[in-house]
Design a protein that fits this description.
- By secondary structure, the protein is α/β, with parallel strands linked by helices.
- It contains 16 helices and 20 strands.
- It has a seven-stranded mixed β-sheet, sandwiched between helices.
- Strand 17, helix 15 and strand 18 form a beta-alpha-beta unit.
- The protein is globular and about 80 Å long.
- Bound molecules: NADPH dihydro-nicotinamide-adenine-dinucleotide phosphate.
- Its EC number is 1.2.1.8.
- It catalyses: betaine aldehyde + NAD(+) + H2O = glycine betaine + NADH + 2 H(+).
- Pfam families: Aldedh.
- InterPro entries: Ald_DH/histidinol_DH, Ald_DH_C, Ald_DH_CS_CYS, Ald_DH_CS_GLU, Ald_DH_N, Aldehyde_DH_dom, BADH.
Length: 485
């Protein structure tokens, strides 16, 4: 079956779609039905070579343009993405299975925000002047060169833009490898960027599995690697990049805590817990999957949560009323079902959900476990699916220590009406992104990234510029130079 919005070939290299069917075929499955909707082919070594050499040529041209010119291209691409939001959202839904209700407001739109934000910033990127008596130093903010972006499968359009926009704003070229589970969306991002005026080759997309990613990461011509993926993959990619002393950004997994105090606005806290566990069927890295609920409100919380989950509209992701879709793949569904079985076996109390739905596609019910303890597997490991673990607590000091007792540190949230407690908890969280009385917002203006094993570096915001550029210091002596001999 062919869907109208599909890209026309597997790769986008040097400003054009490229096909080479000798690469390993990768089937693209629509998660809502299990049907194959496209086949792409992994990049052969020859195509990887073309991607790197064309990126090298394009980078020189792109970096020679002024920031204003570069920014204009990015902002034009942002406008085009917004104009084509419907088409891009449909494609995102076919690629990931996420409901159109979500993709139409959270994917191409978020990608467009990144292109617009970094497009606006491109002309403002400068070095500085440092006066040293009559001598002086000036710094030049220079691009790193060739950047590799490697994406996870949960937000394929957004990840392609969150990495591409700051990289391009700084004058780099990017070679992006999407997850093999969701290969389609990044191709459209590349197509739009080039239609908007990007020099051919400045943003290439090559398909493949981990071996294609590894070939890119280890190539000596690559200067920077930005990965969004799991912690185990992050360890491998970080180590490979270290071998070549390359710059890295690592956006990795999490098992984030969400603390709900007894004075919280209960409906808002439940909204936060729903957004932080069931949006995108729970396939969000920053999800607050360890929900610590104060014992005094635990039963009220669980009763209301179960009632609200009952109103989730589960089904065909293309229907506008659908608010909960399938898992991205059969594999991910089975991983999540395994965790649900472990939760039951460990003695957690199933409050609702817990089963695969009896229909085509990879659907799992929104699932809530109560009476979860810190040592259970479902409270320690990233599940990456719609499974909320509710843990009880009595005391602020105790809950903060338990919230931080994890190798992860991506995000953390707190719901309370006590202003000073909210800020005390936020300061105490060992996490890169914290939320007070909200959860999972990710505006481009704010830095996003993880502490501890959840990552290195930050995406979005002014902070991303430091991760896609480097400073050169130039010393200038105005007078004679003294030497010891
Ligand atoms: P994986 O870690 O399995 O894969 C991430 C990407 O890395 C894929 O494109 C994968 O290719 C590629 N890859 C795998 N092995 C290598 C290697 N040795 N060298 C180079 N590239 C490699 O993650 P998932 O795709 O399963 O995504 C889910 C994970 O991503 C979760 O842990 C989630 O928390 C995390 N994530 C983090 C986010 C953040 O911003 N912090 C945001 C979204 C997700 P392929 O899959 O094609 O083999």
């Amino acid at each position: 079956m062919t869907y109208p919005t599909q890209p026309t070939a597997s790769h986008f290299i040097n400003g054009a779609y490229v096909e080479d069917t000798s690469g390993t075929p990768i089937e693209v499955i629509y998660p809502a039905t299990g049907e194959t909707i496209a086949t792409v082919h992994a990049a052969t070594p020859a195509l990887i070579e073309q991607a790197i050499t064309s990126a090298g040529r394009a980078q020189a041209v792109w970096a020679a343009m002024t920031g204003t010119e570069r920014g204009r291209v990015l902002r034009r691409a942002a406008d085009m993405m917004r104009e084509r939001n419907h088409e891009l959202s449909v494609l995102e839904t076919y690629d990931t299975g996420k409901p159109y209700q979500e993709t139409s407001v959270a994917d191409a739109t978020s990608g467009a925000d990144a292109l617009e934000y970094f497009g606006g910033m491109a002309a403002t990127l400068t070095g500085e002047h440092i006066q040293l008596g009559e001598d002086w130093v000036y710094t030049r903010r220079e691009p790193l060169g060739l950047c590799v972006g490697i994406g996870a499968w949960n937000y394929p359009t957004q990840i392609a833009c969150w990495k591409g926009a700051p990289a391009l704003a700084c004058g780099n070229a990017m070679i992006f490898k999407p997850s093999e589970t969701t290969p389609l969306c990044a191709l459209k991002v590349a197509e739009i960027l080039h239609e908007a005026g990007l020099p051919a080759g400045a943003y290439n997309v090559v398909q493949g599995l981990g071996d294609v990613g590894a070939a890119l990461v280890t190539d000596p011509r690559i200067d920077k690697v930005s990965l969004t993926g799991s912690v185990p993959t992050g360890r491998k990619v970080y180590a490979a990049a270290a071998e070549g002393i390359k710059h890295v950004t690592m956006e990795l997994g999490g098992k984030s805590p969400l603390i709900i105090f007894e004075d919280a606005d209960l409906e808002n806290a439940i909204s936060g817990a729903i957004l932080g566990n069931f949006y995108s069927s729970g396939q969000v890295c920053s999800n607050g999957t360890r929900v610590f609920v104060h014992r005094a409100i635990k039963q009220a919380f669980l009763d209301r949560l179960a009632a609200r989950l009952d109103s989730a509209v589960i089904g065909d992701p293309m229907r506008p009323e659908t608010s909960f879709g399938p898992m991205v793949s059969e594999r991910q569904m089975n991983i999540v079902l395994d965790y649900i079985a472990k939760g039951k076996a460990e003695g957690a109390r199933l409050v609702c959900g817990g089963c695969r739905l009896d229909r085509d596609g990879f659907y799992i019910q929104p699932t809530v476990f109560a009476d979860v303890t810190d040592d259970m597997v479902i409270a320690r490991e990233e599940i990456f699916g719609p499974v909320m673990a509710v843990l009880d607590f009595d005391d602020e000091t105790e809950v903060l220590a338990r919230a931080n007792a994890t190798e992860f540190g991506l995000a953390a949230g707190v719901f309370t009406r006590d202003l000073t407690r909210a800020h005390r908890i936020a300061a105490g969280f060992e996490a890169g992104t914290c939320y007070i009385n909200t959860y999972n917002d990710a505006p481009v203006e704010a830095p996003f990234g993880g502490a501890k094993s959840s990552g290195v570096g930050r995406e979005n915001s002014k902070a991303a510029i430091a991760h896609y550029s480097q400073l050169k210091s130039v010393y200038v002596r105005m007078g004679d130079l003294e030497a010891p001999f």
